[in-house]
Specification:
The protein is an alpha/beta fold. It is 35% helix and 26% strand. It is globular. The protein binds S-adenosylmethionine.
Amino acid sequence: MLDYNQNYYQQYFKNNFNEELMPGHGVEACLDWASTCFRPGRWLDVGAGPCSMFWSVTAPISIDAIALADLSRVPLDMTAELIRTRNWPPAYIQALHYLGKTEDHLNTLANAPLDIHEFNAFEKWPDVGVFDSISAFGLAGIADSISTLDTLLTEAKDHLAPGGVLFGASWVFSNTYAMKLKGRKQCLSSLAERLATHGYEDIQTTEVPLTSDDNYYGIMLFKGRA
Ligand SMILES: C[S@@+](CC[C@H](N)C(=O)[O-])C[C@H]1O[C@@H](n2cnc3c(N)ncnc32)[C@H](O)[C@@H]1O
């Protein structure tokens, strides 16, 4: 199990989607994917880590409110500080340009009301309201049993407005990386079936292969509509 401490989140922020968009790591595919999934209205980013504003480049400008959720408050406070300073890392700007947008996009979203929620997404969620978009980047792949994944999917569905969409991306561990994580299991190959079991509609899953990464075989992109 990873040690989710302050150092982890600071390193994560620095090492992911920060200095530059690195070609060949599937990020552009994630940006394209998320751009087609997001809906206007209220957005919850669950398992948010410190990277929500990176993914927000894919959101429509008509986001009414942003909510961030994670097991730890540390990365959420980091995002709140980033929103306050608007000191957007270079990769955020590159991602905006990739999508044909400008920094105005982030500066506008930074004005949206912000809520922060610290909870375990693999257990019953607290009363955080309902959302038009729920994103989960790098979270579904952490579920190491079907029942854990099921809890995430049912709780997300219960917190989606009618027609709201759950979407995201999860990195598929290579055997080497799974062993580094003490043989950790993933359930991503069951994702489409589990989404269907929980009554999601318009389900789409697709895997982007990664050939140049020792830790990951690919990225599982997914979405389902409530
Ligand atoms: C791989 S990071 C992904 C961070 C970010 N979403 C991104 O796209 O880079 C996984 C995040 O999920 C959070 N997390 C892990 N287990 C969780 C759980 N059971 N409930 C909520 N968040 C969790 C961690 O604290 C961490 O911030």
